[in-house]
Write a structure and sequence with these properties.
single chain; mainly alpha; 5 helices; 0% strand; elongated
């Protein structure tokens, strides 16, 4: 009878009743950067002060390298579908 307990837990995991998907620290950092880059990429520099603010934020977030960083993460996690989904979702997120 003890043999069936692990199988029951395994079945529970397969049904989606398990805990949330783990997010590795490098993906979490990428997601936060991507959100900021998506946000500031859609902002309008309507005056000099706002353009400077946007430029500072883009530089701080290193938005010019975000696509390359994404490609590296996609390669690193190519065999981990839940993590790939997190990466793709961040790229498509708009704030």
């Amino acid at each position: 009878m003890k043999r069936f307990i692990p199988l029951g837990l395994f079945a529970l995991t397969l049904t989606g009743a398990a805990a949330a998907v783990w997010t590795p620290p490098d993906i979490a950092a990428y997601v936060e950067r991507r959100k900021g880059c998506n946000h500031f990429g859609g902002e309008e520099g309507y005056d000099k002060a706002r353009r400077e603010e946007i430029n500072r934020a883009v530089a701080k977030l290193n938005c010019n390298a975000i696509d390359g960083d994404e490609k590296a993460l996609l390669r690193r996690y190519r065999h981990a579908p839940p993590q790939l989904q997190q990466i793709h979702a961040a790229k498509d997120a708009l704030l």
